[in-house]
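Figure-free illustration: sequence to structure, shown twice.
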Amino acid sequence: MKKLRVVAMAAERDELLRALLRLGCVEISEPDGLLNDPDWSALLRRGVSPLMDTKGAIADVTSALNAIRRYAAVKDGLFIQRRPIRESEFLSSDSAAQAKETCDKINGLLMQLAGLQSDKGRMTSRAASLTPWKGLDFPLETPDTAHVIFRMGVCPAATDVGALRAELSGGETAAELYPVGADKTQQYLLLICHRADEEAAMEALRPAGFSVVTFQDCTGTPRENLAKLEKSIAKNEAEQKRIVEALAACGGARDALRAYADRLNAEAAQDADAQRLLTDGTIVFFQGWVPAESEKKLAALLEKRDCAWETADPEEAEYPHVPVQLKNNWLTKPLNMVTDMYSLPAYGSLDPNPLMAPFFILFYGIMLADMGYGLLMMLASVMVLKKYKPKGTMEHFFGLMGLCGISTFIMGAITGGFFGDFLTQLVGIISPGTTFALPALFTPLNDTLMILIGSMCLGFVQILTGMAISFYKKLKRGQVMDAIWEEVTWWVVFAGLALAILGVTNIVLVAGGVMVLAGAFYGAKDNKGAGKILGAFTGVFGSLYNHVTGYFGDILSYSRLMALMLAGSVIAQVFNTLGAIPSNVVVFLIISLAGNALNFALNLLGCYVHDLRLQCLEYFNKFYEDGGKRFRPLAINTKYVDIVKE
């Protein structure tokens, strides 16, 4: 990665950023460090851009696409199928203007629809409040007279209205209470009384929970108002239907809106980087990063734009801030999914993907080990990658699935597994008494101990590989003695143990013990006198304990390869056996396929998790330096379309 500094004319800013966007290999850094410098901050200030307007446009087009998805008969499917589009069409101002016009039209229709839905809600609520009063043949706007008042009110459904009427008529109060209607919660009443007795009548009704109801802006009887509301609601629904049909008719614009959404996201990235540029109004300045392999094409662009620029290798003190871009090929690219879940390697360290890929793919195949499952994985990978062409994490996921499917199929062929013993059971049902089995070098049920030993031997190989990588890194950094006393010492110990167990010689094991002791004294070299001797002896015991228990625990962890192979095989055979009990092919197929589908789904995830654990805990801790910062260049990153360069 090269550190980049560029000075250009302010008038060329937008054109320069647009060219860098199309080039897609420059990450522009935040200028905070420069702005904190008084000399820089006195001369330059941050640039401005229409980023907020662009984000607003993105929200609008997202709303329009959601409306098409909801109202038009257009389905997205499980995966987005990218549409190829020429770069000139993608960046065309005319295409963007047409898409914006369609977007504004759809959002205008949505606003109208929202208003109509709100109006319908209010009318429906008003109709619901008037419905209990529809038996009242009494204009709602009837005014009180000089001597008589009219009050509509409600009280709880359990109220004894007859008793209330008797109480009002039995006293000196000139009032009458008329029931209008009732429902499960309330009774609806009309109170007519002399104006002078209003207070007394209300006081008599208050213990019964009587409360007055009014209907503002209503003229005519409740039944007449309900009829008007029904007509208005019907008209509202017809208008809503018209707008929904208009929205559905916009479904053909989905592809154009998707391309417009991708363009807006590219413009938002450009606008965000425009705010990282420093300017005095005449010139603009920025600094960032560019991969060394892209320096030549960047140089051609900057020289064409008459920019002043320079690149330099980052200093070691800058490594924590240098972005990381992994170099990928067909084998290592899918492993980015694993690296992304863990952490990117620190700049200046090793790319773990080529070192991890063979082990990860092999271990996954060992754990799943079934030709049928392997075929499903390969078919799913090829179909999705060819038809939908996903990018990013989904591309890595299905690429890794295909590679692990190949390994799974090969290990299934070695162990004779095809959906467990599916074929054996099926042949037994079709032709009772016939013995059939796929050829196998070994099987999980019959050779469990051998598989266990083989799994731990493979784990030991991976651990030794990790130690070898660590040895190489230390030699490259000039840490020769650390490499000798850490890695070489334990290689000698391992070799000595093997030779001693085989009865060849004990000399190598003794030499290893001496090297462990010498390494402890080397580690305590900074101590003096008695502290040096005490440090050496504690170092010996500490080294022996940590390394012996650590290596033993790490190697034992690889027994999960055998455990998952055995578990997957047994579960598949159990379902096949259950399906074969009725001796009916149809029943067998139903039970076996359902059980194998469940087994496949569980192991697809389980094997990935356990494989990931082996790489991250047992392997990476030998050499991996994490904490890398992802390289995020200014580039056109699309979700819906594939840009075809012209």
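We now fold a second protein in the same way, so the two outputs can be compared directly.
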Amino acid sequence: MTALARASTAARRPLTWLTVAVLAVLITLVALPLAGLVRATLSDGAAPTWAEVLASPMSSALFWEPLGGSLLVGLGTGLLSTVLGAFLAWVVVMSDVPGRRVIGVLAAIPFALPSFAIALAWESVFRNDLIGGNAGLLVSLGVAVPDWLAWGPVPVVLTLAAHYYSLSFVVVAAALANVGGDLVAAAELTGASRLRVAVRIVIPAVAPAVLSGFLLAFAEGVSNFAVPALLGLPVRFQTLSTRLYGAISTGDTVRGYVLSILLVVVAAAILFVGSRITRGRSYSTITGKATRARTTRTGGWRVPLAVGAWAVVTATALLPGVVLAVSTVLRRTNSLEGGFTLHYWVGESDPSISQGMRGILRDPIVAQALGGTVGLGVAVALGAVLVGALAAYVVRHLPGARPAKGLIGLLSYVPFLIPGVALGAAFIAQFGAPVGPFGSLYGTFAILVLAGIAASLPFAFQTATTSFGQVSAELDEAAVLTGASGPRRFGRITVPLVSRGLANGGVLVFVTMVRDLSVVVLLVTPATPLLSMMTFRYASEGFTQQANAITLVIAVISVAATLLARRLERTHRSIS
């Protein structure tokens, strides 16, 4: 068969057209925004901005100091998150500490909360009078809070670690659960001490998971915007995320685009170095059929370990919610002396309270933002799952065509390397001005949805790939023998079998979008209000009760959706 004939045959296959459509969508969502970002920094008159940012008298304040701040925050977040996550994972999976199942549930909650929820709770307790405004609860009770504990890198790192240690916990716990109990028992029967068993068997087995958890927390810490903005900017502690946000929000877009590209490069380099460290090395110490992880008897350490584990999950999963809830019913910001009120929730406009602002449940703008937030989460979840599922289906079923498969996989993974603020800047660069017959998307709901789908693609694609991989090819082959067409096989066999896995992924995408601020902070306008942006604005303007109340609403939505996802996952496992 000639090449022309083969091409003609391929063109008649529905899968070929589906591949073309998937590639077109991925190029539009990922490649074009990045290309637009680069093009904007190399256009006429813009190229000198690179030298200005990297090598000029202003470069220290523009790039190098924020870079140092980002790396400091990333390193601190990565190390502390790894220590806390690995400790809790060991307690839950391998120890005999009482209540470890509940500890495991609580340890996963902080990641479901917005990162700025813990930052706002920290500010409500530890804020001092360094920058003016209402001080926190400790100061109102007569406790002197040092500046380094109220503002700057220390509270930024502590609050980010309290949020992102859940990543390390989940990754390390999964690795510990796969450490065969028979292998540990055999080592103990030979007389090996617990320390030797840990050093020679357990630690090597989970080393890749520990490193992965560190890299994830490091990258998230480097790219996070909300926490450094709330706890760092008031004392001029800058990171690359806050610096590029400041540049773009003040109209210095080209400089902001340059900083966005540099932030992408930094985040990608971190993850690339981490992958190179583990490439080609074998950490495997387990062979044969895996058995249940062996429980370690902790003896006299049982109570101290339980106290430590409960202290961590209480401080990170329970106390922030309690602090935020209490702060919303205080008549005076962060002070018990003024008494309590429900005004910030259900009150009518009163000029003597909060400059006449209504309670959030009576505010039509908050109601509009709530609808926009939920609508955005649903739209992004549906879009990301659809694109991810189609991309995974093409990669799994497309015969040959390695370049097409490789390109789909690459474009589906690249957004993982792009921090949210930088991705938002890329969408402004590409879609913020009219392109041919298409008008500008800036200020519309559409650009929020497109940016959200792009940011969620890596997770949606990975979830879909896993779900499709669990479906045996024999089922599809049997349907082929009955004469069923490709679309019919996909709709009647594949979709029902992968639906629960895709639904679980969709719920988690929804949670991420509802609580996210970094992706949307540059894209939101008064015409498209969102709860996360209202929280940030209220917190920046000193309306603490309103900011904390809206944060609680976001937290309730996120935690409820996360619990739903866990239930779907358990149901899926029990059925399969």
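Summary for the second example: The longest helix spans residues 59-94.
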